[in-house]
Specification:
With 457 residues, the chain is of the alpha/beta class. It has a domain of 303 residues: TIM Barrel (Alpha-Beta Barrel), CATH 3.20.20. The protein is built from 17 helices and 16 strands. Strands 1, 2, 3, 4, 5, 14, 15 and 16 form an 8-stranded mixed sheet that branches. It has a 5-stranded parallel sheet with strand order 9-10-11-12-13. Helix 4 crosses helix 5, helix 6 packs parallel to helix 7 and helix 7 runs parallel beside helix 8. The longest helix is centred in the C-terminal third of the chain and has 21 residues.
């Protein structure tokens, strides 16, 4: 597998030197930076090796900086960012591009942001053997849909079948995959005893997943919950395999126990009560990231009737119609209405939103995630709904977008995506409106690019 956190392979010294001043090359080598992307010679804004130029847009690079006020020129080569500089002479740019047979995109008046990262999604979860589609093709189609909505990296946390690993490996090659990139957790690890959990971790680690997934939840009292001695043994064994554990949970006390045990990611909101200072302290002490997945609660109570979002043109333009048919089946809707759980999850959403705000205000790292992928959790669309729910909770557009770019990448250990900077993968979204003014503007997608390749929309 190509390690998605490894630096870009360096080019030959001759090529690097041709593209970079010697002082940059010396600094890059000293710092261990990927010199493949280099910089332009002197003050010349056009790198002769670039195969893609995007110009005229304002750029937000994924960090805490504001949107750059001046139009920029973004240069890309071999699927990576070469440079981002102020736009200069358009005629010279076009002449350079023609000479290089490079693609040129006029993004004047638009806005460029990093591709969104979903730290908790699912791929292939609604596949069935009688669907008439091979599992790998089904998973690939779902990643293509994610990308069309601007989500360029997805962590599939559990339920991933063997073909997902090949799809994962292909998505981190040097050529843009024309779909969202993928990390996988494989099967969710279970066990009634520490010994069973350890054996399950060993089995789950065999195909080299990116994460180990564990559930510590009782489904509102419907099932037995994994006890602390079991998940402690599970986390310790995962560490032996140099794998981090992503924890599904609901209750604050479980979050405390899992944080003390060494979980690598809290993959859902705490939804039973307001987070206390002890929990906040544990997050800050461990540095573990918190993934809200607010839309999971929506999916748990929305389908007692036909929710208005099913008629949103932004969804209907790119939706799995088979899932719409399932969630609008009258018998299914009646079962939802008769169940006591939807009301509980509606209340849980309010608690989750309050906890998100409290944790964010305290400085806890928030990693964007939705739990999209299972039935009725519409991939791509739910990511935009998540951002709107985060805004309702009181987070600013900057906080929300950082959680879905720089912060998510950092939480996942992905050094090549999430920020627009030289050397990073050329995963970005061109928008027709400024998302830092209103996160709903992230819906205004002009184009999506993964590894410097435009996604068909």
């Amino acid at each position: 597998m190509t390690n998605p956190t490894s630096p870009a392979p360096a080019p030959s010294p001759r090529r690097a030197a041709a593209r970079c001043p010697s002082r940059f090359l010396a600094w890059a080598l000293l710092a261990g930076a990927p010199v493949a992307i280099g910089c332009s010679q002197g003050d010349a804004p056009y790198d002769e090796s670039s195969d893609l130029f995007v110009y005229g847009a304002q750029v937000w690079n994924g960090t805490d900086a504001e949107m750059e006020p001046s139009p920029a020129l973004l240069q890309f080569s071999e699927g990576r960012i070469v440079s981002i500089t102020p736009m200069r002479d358009e005629a010279e740019l076009l002449a350079t591009a023609e000479r290089q047979d490079a693609e040129v995109v006029d993004a004047t008046g638009m806005f460029v942001i990093p591709g969104l990262i979903n730290a908790h999604g699912h791929v292939g979860g609604t596949w069935s053997a009688d669907s008439g589609v091979e599992y790998a093709d089904y998973a690939t189609a779902e990643l293509e849909r994610y990308a069309r909505f601007g989500v360029t990296t997805v962590v599939s946390l559990g339920g991933d079948r063997a073909p997902s690993f090949a799809v994962r490996d292909a998505s981190w090659g040097e050529v843009g995959p024309e779909r969202a990139r993928l990390q996988v957790a494989g099967s969710v690890v279970t066990g009634a005893t520490p010994e069973e959990a350890v054996a399950a971790v060993d089995e789950a680690a065999e195909p080299s997943p990116d994460w180990i997934k564990v559930r510590v939840d009782d489904n509102l009292g419907a099932i037995s919950k994994m006890p602390p001695d079991v998940y402690r043994a599970l986390i310790e064994r995962a560490s032996d395999h140099e794998l981090r554990v992503a924890s599904h949970l609901f209750y604050q006390e479980d979050a405390k126990g899992l944080l003390r045990a060494g979980t690598g990611l809290v993959a859902h909101s705490i939804r039973d009560e307001e987070v206390d200072d002890e929990t906040i302290g544990l997050f800050l002490e461990t540095g573990v990231c918190y993934v809200p997945t607010l839309t999971r609660e929506v999916s748990a109570f929305a389908y007692g009737e036909r929710p208005a979002f099913l008629d949103d043109p932004f969804l209907t333009a790119d939706v799995d119609a088979a899932q719409v048919q399932v969630v609008t089946d009258p018998d299914r809707q009646q079962r939802v209405r008769q169940s006591p759980q939807p009301a509980a999850y509606r209340e849980a959403l309010q608690v989750a939103q309050g906890n998100l705000k409290r944790l964010a205000d305290a400085g806890v790292a928030i990693a964007f995630g939705t739990d999209s992928g299972p039935m009725g959790r519409f991939q791509g669309y739910f990511e935009h709904m998540e951002m709107e729910l985060m805004a309702e909770a009181g987070l600013t557009p900057n906080q929300i977008l950082r959680s879905a770019t720089e912060k998510a990448a950092s939480c996942l250990g992905l050094e090549e995506v999430g920020v627009l900077a030289p050397g990073r993968r050329a995963d970005f979204v061109v928008l027709r409106a400024n998302p830092l003014e209103d996160v709903r503007n992230a819906r205004q997608i002009e184009s999506v690019w993964v590894g410097g390749r435009r996604i068909s929309r």
